[in-house]
Amino acid sequence: MSGSVLPAAGRPGSMGAKRLFDLIAAGVGLLLLSPLLLAIALWIKLDSKGPVFFRQERVGRFGQPFRIHKFRTMRVDAERHGQLTVGRDHRVTRAGAFLRKSKLDELPQLIDVLLGDMSLVGPRPEVPRYVAHYPREIKALVLSVRPGITDWASIRMIDENDILGAAADPERAYLDEVLPQKLDYYVRYAQSHTLAGDVCIILATLKKIVLR
Predict the structure, then answer these.
(1) β-pair type (53-59, 119-121)
(2) DSSP letters along 49-83, please?
(3) What's the pTM value of the predicted model, to 2 decimals?
(4) Model confidence over 77-104: pLDDT tens digits?
(5) Does residue 141 contact residue 8 with C-beta atoms inside 8 Å?
(6) What is the SS3 assignment for 133?
(7) Helix (H) and strand (E) counts for the chain?
(8) Are 58 and 122 in contact (CB under 8 A)?
(9) Angle at 84 between CA 206 and CA 166, to 5 degrees
(10) Which of 109, 192, 114 is nearest to 148 (CA)?
(11) What is the maximum span of the chain, computed from C-alpha positions, in angstroms?
(12) Is 149 helix (H, G, I), strand (E, B) or coil?
């Protein structure tokens, strides 16, 4: 972990504006995207057996667990074979391959934003087993903000799946190489996030997805 870890500054006004922005943007987004979301849900049901949504426990703000909403992109028994998705994973469905590539599987997390479990922008929420590997001195800082749908780590490490696919031991590669890089981004965000910065990250995310 590079640099010193400083506590996040208290910004009650900024946090209030961020939450209001999240509520408005998520509500409008769900309304405008509802035809697309319904079409994707139908495609998932026609493509493979199982529910439309993938619900998995993640660690939220202040360490509170919540069950994330994502479009299901794998077979229903996928987690029996591990929680990492590596390379051309045979567990991924036909519809799921496109949804993961285009990041459309993340859209249902707008529901989590409305519920208050997530923000549009923030550190990506991890499963408990990987949060357990967060260094003690930075864990509280990273978990002091709501997890987000996107952040700089998501943008700059968008092909993480392919990186892990090339590793001899994907689990070890994730813990030793990928996770520390993500935590660097998470710490910097928790220490210095602003509403204007969030807007920049959202625009950069859309640009990255369109240009892939």
Answers:
(1) unpaired
(2) SS-SEEEEEEE-GGG-EEEEEEE--B-TTGGGG-S
(3) 0.87
(4) 766 656 666 556 788 999 999 999 899 9
(5) yes
(6) coil
(7) 10, 4
(8) no
(9) 85
(10) 109
(11) 50
(12) strand
